[in-house]
Design goal:
By secondary structure, the protein is of the alpha/beta class. The chain has 14 helices and 18 strands.
């Protein structure tokens, strides 16, 4: 499979942040970036994957990589996996920040990490974090025994010494500013409940073990961006923490992870809803795909672990029937069959995701659109509501990603959710839009008394920016979620 890391015109210098658990690596990472990127919690081992971020300092671009805390061999179920992640980060890095805790002094774990770092020929800066006052700065001198020269006292929490640290990093790098590409291409969010193989799928796509993979549910807690080039196009993959049922989300780190997963969906163009093909789809699976639909992303339903099932078309047809019955609210979402373990179907999945991305940017000429709507309204007129009937005056496509159609009508209050569903289905039959949510917005003409026209406080305006289904739900109608009722599949 021809998947490569996305290229910039000049590779950014890479700075790896390593250290034992809970010395403040992620806090320092976030402070250097100037924003919250890695999870930060007063809990050892909160970061377990390599998380990347770019920072500009004095006209130079740097790429930072935050790593999990390096534990002594045998400590914790993730220790060998985290160690492998850190060794990979060290191999990639141009400069290494060895972070220690100025309050606790040198520990056995610090000595073990120092021994590991002395094997590399990369420059190492010893950073004594949590040096919140002069006394702590004086205490930082005890770290000379680690063999990396003068420790740099900083406080990520109080933003002390961080500018000086960045200056020290620049001094170890070539002084030519590194250009950086801002192209993100198609953004794919990999979503699903814990332990369905999201991280394994990401690793199968990228071709290296970027994200820790284990049999323990929930081993990914950060949203991790990975940019690759496939079929001549740039893809940014957003791997997210497994999303649990609301009642099972713990406080603290896991809640942050769910929030970050939702944020990833808000950034994504296409969501890859990963499920375990060996298990029946659960209510949690439908909830997670529903989150993507509500975010109006594209959706691909990904059945992973196909290597554990009998091969052949009969198996795929059986799974397709089961999935279509469970996910009636997204009949337009294509299904991909993959095995992250063997690589089966991964190339086809990426090709399908690119096709969905193209569907999201499709535009329909206004004349063609209005001819279609006149025809479908003539074939099936809107239902009468208290002796009045909805009249569609004019339709235009206002946006792409997602495709958004604005219907100018006599009174949006006369729209029934079933008729909106009918219009959406006919749009899909005529123009495709396979794999992507589309939005239908109904605007009343000036002077209409309908509640949807009043929703924005102005005549003829879009009501609350929502579709008719959502407005019906807010009004207390006994209906299911928007487009969650059965509808005919597009032909």
């Amino acid at each position: 499979m021809n998947v490569q890391p996305a290229h910039t015109t000049s590779r950014l210098p890479l700075v790896a942040i390593v250290g034992r658990p809970n010395v403040g690596k992620s806090s320092l990472f976030n402070r250097l970036l100037g924003r919250r990127r890695a999870l930060v919690e007063d809990l050892p081992g909160t970061t377990r994957d390599r998380v990347y971020g770019d920072v500009e300092w004095r006209g130079h671009m740097l790429r930072l990589v935050d790593t999990g805390g390096l534990e002594a061999p045998g400590e914790g179920p993730f220790a060998p996996l985290v160690r492998r992640q850190i060794e990979q980060a060290i191999a990639e890095a141009d400069v290494i920040l060895f972070v220690v805790d100025a309050r606790e002094g040198v520990t056995a774990a610090d000595l073990d990490i120092a021994q590991l770092l002395r094997r590399t020929d990369k420059p190492v800066l010893l950073v004594a974090n949590k040096a919140d006052n002069l006394q702590r700065e004086l205490e930082a001198t005890q770290f000379y025994e680690l063999g990396f020269g003068d420790p740099l006292p900083v406080s990520a929490y109080h933003d002390l010494g961080v500018a000086e640290l960045l200056d020290e990093i620049l001094a170890l790098l070539p002084q030519t500013p590194a250009p950086v590409t801002t192209e993100t291409g198609l953004r794919l969010a990999i979503i699903g409940r814990p332990n369905v193989g999201k991280s394994a799928l990401l690793n199968a796509i990228v071709g290296d073990e970027r994200v820790i993979v284990s049999e323990i549910p929930g081993t990914t807690r950060d949203v991790i961006d990975t940019t690759i080039s496939y079929a001549g196009q740039t893809l940014t993959l957003l791997d997210t923490a497994g999303i649990r049922r609301a009642g099972r989300i713990e406080r603290g780190v896991e809640r942050h992870s769910v929030e970050r997963a939702r944020a990833a969906l808000a950034r994504a163009d296409v969501a890859l809803g990963v499920m375990d093909a060996t298990e029946p789809a659960t209510a949690q699976d439908t909830h997670i795909v529903g989150m993507a639909e509500e975010a109006h992303t594209g959706v691909v339903l990904v059945l992973n672990k196909m290597d554990l099932l009998p091969p052949g078309q009969e198996t795929r047809q059986r799974l397709t029937t089961l999935v279509r019955a469970r996910f009636k609210f997204v009949p337009w979402a294509p299904i991909a069959f993959v095995s992250a373990k063997t690589g089966e179907g991964v190339q086809e999945l990426l090709t399908l995701a690119l096709a969905v991305g193209r569907e999201r940017t499709k535009r329909v000429p206004t004349g063609e659109l209005n001819r279609l709507i006149r025809r479908v309204v003539a074939e099936h007129a809107p239902p009468s509501v208290q002796g009045k009937r909805l009249k569609v005056l004019y339709v235009t496509q206002a946006e792409v990603s997602p495709p958004t159609f604005v219907f100018f009508v006599n009174d949006a209050a006369l729209l029934h959710f079933s008729y909106e569903r009918y219009l959406e289905n006919r749009l899909r039959e005529a123009f495709g839009f396979q794999g992507t949510a589309i939005r239908l917005v109904f605007r009343s003409r000036p002077g209409s008394p309908g509640p949807r026209a009043a929703g924005r406080g102005g005549e003829g305006g879009e009501v609350d920016g929502r579709s008719a289904n959502e407005q019906h739900r807010k009004a207390g109608a006994d209906r299911t979620r928007e487009r969650r009722t059965p509808s005919s599949e597009p032909h």
